[in-house]
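User: Quick one: structure for sequence A, then sequence B.

Assistant: Sequence A:
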Amino acid sequence: MASASAKLTASPTPPASDAAPGHAPALQGEWWVELMGWVALVVFIALPIFTYVFEDYAGGIVWTIVIASLPVFIVLVGYHRWRRICPLAFWAQLPARLKRPGTRKAGPWLETNYYYIAFSAFFVSLWLRLIATNGDGHAISAFVGLLSLTALLFGVLYTGKTWCNYLCPLSFIEKIYTEPHGLRETPNSQCVQCTACKRACPDINEENGYWKEIGSRPKRLVYYAFPGLVFGFYLYFYLQSGTWQYYFSGAWTRQPGLSWTAFLPGDVPWTAGFFFLPVVPRALAAALTLALWSLAGMLFFSQLERLVGSWRGTRRNDTRVRHITMTVAAFTAFVTFYSFAGAPTLRLIPWVHQLFRILVVATATLFLVRRLPRTPQAFAEETLARNIVNHWEWTDVDPPRDLREAFLIHTVRTRESQRSAASILEGYKNAVRVALADGFVTREEVQQLAALRHQLDITRADHERIMSELAEEEQDVRANPAGQVLAASGGYAYRMPAHSTATASDSSSPMEHRTTASSDHSALGRP
């Protein structure tokens, strides 16, 4: 039947390879990604040296330029490209590059709760900023070096991208800002040799991992807590000093040695825990602020999830409800971050500040519009469409670039082919029915049927099925005393063969030497 359909449409052209075509050309066309990776690595290596030597400029360069530009950069270039650029990933993969990869794998507990681990690492990183590394070049240098050594250590001990997937403080942020897929499709970032370090690996397919994990409680809570954590971090600059000018002036980027007073009561705005309660040590005040606002974000978006569920008339943990709420949480975190990030430096050049804000708003709007209507069904259709394009059958039309269009064309043409093939089989069945109804089927006529099968590309299995159906029809005819019926299929008059009414005394009748369709239909089917 499949071969019959091929006659009715353009002949399929087998793909040259089962591998996804387009991956190799796409990677060759993205030479700049590898170049960016080397540039990022050089900058990352130079960063601790620069911050140690030029301490007065360290905080301003690192926190208000490099870190401030990172989220929008990740969103614009895409998740997979960033995974190939990230310098921390280079250190984690260095043992594998040197042919000395780790062999351990993450255990079941880490696989389930890794969102908590990454969030906690990021929480501690923000806390360290508020008490030590914001304006101290030496502390920044030590922090960057410690982070790099940690990534390298896990690369020595653990296989694959264990550091990147489970432990990196930025790993969950990369996902929050790019899931379920980026602004445009990019080649994936999977390892050259996969070691199965993570189920539903985001480096192979980020969106697949997103839909597989959307019901995860740790993922949900981290998504919802993150916007609150971001706001709490920037709010603390006000709670510490009693004025927003302390943050926007950038004074906090030039305050070395603050770590020595972090656990002591403060007496000035930059050493106080709270401006209204300066006796509280800054280390405690910062931790309380970050924790309480993380909890507030978690509670707010959990309540929003209930409201979205009520609005849609579905249960709270419905996939669509969860997706909408997580999308709003990601959008809120992104906009909140860029309401503050980079402002102390960008404000020095007003037109640059305005241009950057326009870029941020446009980027946030684009990823919200692209992300919000996304569904698991759309992902499944596009996945199927991608496979269809990779093995495109229709030579009379080029595979479209739009995957949904490719899926639609394939579906419509396949249905048309199936209907046409069914029509051919029905016509063949009626031809055989008429031949059998005459009761005189010679060898020459059987050969003609074989030629017809060959011409129509009807398979042997379809032929055998048709012969079995006709045999059942003939049995029904024999059971009918009237001797004649109108075949239900095709409207052909099915005449009872003469020998079916002949008596046993008609020994001289030629019917003695004829074979009925019922008793020997297999002979007709096998000329």
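Sequence B:
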Amino acid sequence: MGTDKSIISFVAVDDLGKVLGFGELVPPVTLGAIYVAASAGRRGVASALFEKLEVKARELGMKVLRMDSSLTAVPFYIRHGFRELERGTHRLADGLMMNCVVMEKTLRGRCKRCLKTYPFWDGAGDHELLSWAIVVHAQKYM
């Protein structure tokens, strides 16, 4: 039986088209990665990407998401409902090994949130609305 090698990518961009971050979903169970540019950190970009990926996973009928998290990203994933399964190592694309935490989130029910708009606040006292969007790009690798 063949393996589905579809990778579904979501990219967050600002009003000028500058990439702020991206996330990947690799069915049937893998959340590939979520990366955000340092200049876009702590502004809700990673959370919005994760929410979009989670909705897509549910649409595809995925029941669980598993991933190898970097050690620094563990608190982010715990805040988003993941649990730690074990600690280990992950081989990067360049062949180097990275310490990681294998994490899992069981997907239950349906998402009740509308993800068509993203009103995120930067945390400043005047609560200026951050302006950026999620662009969907899906690719199939053979």
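The radius of gyration is 16 Å. Confidence is low (pLDDT under 50) at residues 110-142.

User: Thanks, that's what I needed.
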